Amino acid sequence: MRYCSNRNVVFSCKYHVVWCPKYRRKVLVEPIDRRLKQVILDLLVEKNADPIEMEVMPDHVHLLVGCDPQYDIHRLVRLIKGRTSAILRHEFPELRRRLPALWTNSYFVATVGGAPLAMVKQYIENQKRI
């Protein structure tokens, strides 16, 4: 297990996050899914979060991320959803026509402590094969 640290804390916090487009519409297809992944990765690097695994399905997104416990996971998810919505709706006008907002207000998040990290990572990697 790899530990990270900041000035105050040594930590290993991993989160499995899942969120969906409004009305669970299947809009996350090429080239939108590729651009979505890039925007999320850029944002995670900007916020010093550790992208472990990510998979974009047509109607939902799985993200396995490690982040500083002092930077609230809720703030990170809210930032990801807000920025990706603004960028994708600007770059892909068809999203504005089909949806009043890109993302639902809700999301799922679980700490990855009960299951081995490799098992959760494999689960996310295998999403498209199911």
From TrEMBL:
Gene3D superfamilies: Transposase IS200-like (3.30.70.1290). InterPro entries: Transposase_17 (IPR002686), Transposase_17_sf (IPR036515). SUPFAM superfamilies: Transposase IS200-like. Pfam families: Y1_Tnp. GO terms for biological process: DNA transposition. Residues 10-127 form the Transposase IS200-like domain. One of its GO terms (molecular function) is transposase activity. NCBIfam families: transpos_IS200. PANTHER family: TRANSPOSASE FOR INSERTION SEQUENCE ELEMENT IS200 (PTHR33360). This is Transposase IS200-like domain-containing protein. It comes from Methylacidimicrobium tartarophylax. The lineage of its organism: Bacteria, Pseudomonadati, Verrucomicrobiota, Methylacidimicrobium.
